[in-house]
Amino acid sequence: MNLQALKEKFNQVFATDHTPRVFAAPGRVNLIGEHTDYNGGHVFPCALSFNTYALATRRNDGKIRLFSTDFEHKGIVQADLHHIAYDKQQNWANYPLGVLWVLLKREYPITNGFDILFCGDVPRGAGLSSSASIELATAVALNALFDLRIPHFELSKIGQEAENKFVGMNCGIMDQFASAMGKENHAILLDCNTLNYRYAPLDLDGICILLCNTNKPHNLIESKYNERRSQCEHALSQLQEHLPIKALGELSEETFEKYKEFITDPIERKRAKHAVYENQRALLAVQKLQEADLQSFGKLMNASHISLRDDYEVTGPELDAMAAAAWEQPGVLGARMTGGGFGGCVVALVKTENVDTFKNNVARIYQAKTGYKPDFYIAAAGAGAREIK
After folding, report:
1. pTM of the model
2. pLDDT tens string 73-103
3. Is residue 333 part of a domain?
4. Which residues are catalytic?
């Protein structure tokens, strides 16, 4: 990322000669533990080396001006510090405005307007949390510009609240947490019930994390994501009549099997089964990683995709075609959809020596089945949200 060119772009767009401060926040890939975060289970994401960059300066008035090089045709989005409200016409800008809305609601002393130019290399619509990365880039920028001194842990909650209550996407904490708290060469085992977490080194030794973008975009707000969450909440409420639990993530597989008949709707029973079993897979996968048993880690990834396909029903033909093509390739330890589903990416563990063959074969098979031309990215575990000095 050429920061000098971005600073010149900032001055050109906003017709100013001020020198902006530069902030960055990464996208994330979740290695295993999908749709478990809002069910009080465990997730195992890592921040990526793809980032959203935010170049920002304070103003002397109450005017907010936002510009994205990814949506250059939309021009500058303007808002008033004293009248922040969701408007569908604001499109991408609702994510940073949502962060500001939460900060103001919590009475943080943001006394002036500001200009922010956003630019990023997190692929949009790929399920790699470009939305969380713009939220956290905004959060770290405002935190620094106004000397708010909010811990990164808390910034992740502010980003989640912005997406839940301002944008209207009822996501869990994982995406914002991974973007805020990422650490180079590490993944994060996060208990979404307690927010206890620990870092786990990604010592993959000749194995690379390959992201396979279906290029079938997904819009989670308009997808079945919120519906899945409400189905799990209803299943939980029926189990709570018989068990002293606060979340599905508290259940072992054995306890779930013993009490599952109390979930009267068979569809909701399948949704709850995924949440419980996926949580256990995530815990076992981290254990296998620490034992350097990457073969077993890969098998758990495959089982995760099958559960997301059959029990949670959030994959769709493109993700299923991509995963199936990946499973057939030499040197593949495992592959699964990552993110909310209904499009986006498959994440695969592939032996480095087989990566080129993998990409050629999977691209050919996948495009023949779906008509979409895929993209591939080698993922590196990057740092969390930060200021770039």
Report:
1. 0.92
2. 999 999 999 999 999 999 999 999 999 999 9
3. no
4. 175
